[in-house]
Amino acid sequence: MGSIRPSVSICALRLPADLRRQTVILLLVSLWASTASPPLQAMTCDAPGIITPPQLIVGTLNVAHGRKEARNQVFLEVEEVRQNLLDLSESLDRAGADMMALQEVDAPSWWSGDFDHVEFLAAHSSYPCFLHGVHASTRLYDFGTALLSPHPLQGGFVHSFPPSWPTTAKGMTVAALDWNPDNRLAEPLRVKFVSVHLDFSRHSVRRAQIDEMVRVLGKLEGPLVVMGDFNTDWKTDGSSLRVLADRLGLAAYAPHAEGLATYGDDGARLDWILVSPGLRFEHYAVYPDVVSDHYAVVAALTWNPER
Known about the structure:
This protein is α+β, with helices and mostly antiparallel strands. The chain has a single domain, classed as Endonuclease/exonuclease/phosphatase (Deoxyribonuclease I, Chain A). Helix content is 21%, strand content 31%. It contains five helices and 15 strands. It has helices at residues 17-32, 78-95, 117-123, 203-217, 240-248; strands at residues 3-5, 40-43, 50-51, 56-62, 99-106, 129-137, 142-149, 154-160, 171-179, 189-197, 224-229, 251-252, 271-275, 279-286, 297-303. Strand 10, helix 4 (203-217) and strand 11 form a beta-alpha-beta unit.
C-alpha cells in the first residue's frame, strides 16, 4: 500500500519518439540514483476563509520540470528554466483560477536548476498559497505534484503510490477550499481538490494506483475535484481513468469529444478534470499556450446539487 503523509517493458502505450527518448533518460537516472525520503512543502498564507465567487475556476498542467519544449531539462541553463517558468506563470495568471493542479513540478533538483519550482511560481504569479508533495526523490531530483491557489488552503495531505520501478514514483496532493457561491448557501461547501500523476508505461501500474486513489479519496466527504495527468484517455479498453470515474462517481467533461488533446503530435487527451455530483461544468478549455510538452486544461464549475 502507499503511504499518507500529513499537512520491464514500456509497451502499454504507443509513445511519441520524444517521450521514448525521455523515458530512456529517466530509466538511466533511476538506475544510477539512490532514493531519499520525499519532503512535503507548503505555504499556508493567511488564515483560511470562505470564498464566494459564483463559479470555481480550476485548472491542471504537467509542467515537465520547467523544460518547456526542450528534449530534457538537464541540458538547460538555470536561467532558461527560470524564463520557462516565468512564461508558465503568465499563462497561469491568465487562467485566473481558484485552484491549479501541477504535475512533474520540482523541488530543488540538480537536473532542473537546483531551485524550488513551486516556490518560484508562487512568488511570480497570483497563486501565493501552495501545497507541494514530492513523490520521486533521488540525488538528481525531487519532484511530484502540487496545488497552487490565490486562497489559503485547508486540510492538506500528500499520498505517494508504491514504487513502480523502473519508472519514477507517482502520487497525489490533496487540499480544500471553503466555498459558498454568491453566499447563497446556509453553510459553505468544503471542496476537496486533488492533483494526481499516474504512471505512463503500464496499465497494470495505473490500475493499482487507481485502487489506491479509490481507497484514499473514497473516505473524503463533500464535493471533490480530481485533476491531473492520468497518462490515459477515456476511450482505451479498460481505461483506468474511466474506472476511477465510475468507482468514485465522478464526471468528465465531454469525454468522447474531439479537439481537447493535451499532449503530443498524435493528439492524446491525457490531462483531465473530474468532478463529483453537484458540480457542473460551465466552461472547459485547453489552453494553446506552449509552456510545457502538455497543454493546460481550465474549467469553470458551478454548484447545482439538484442536477
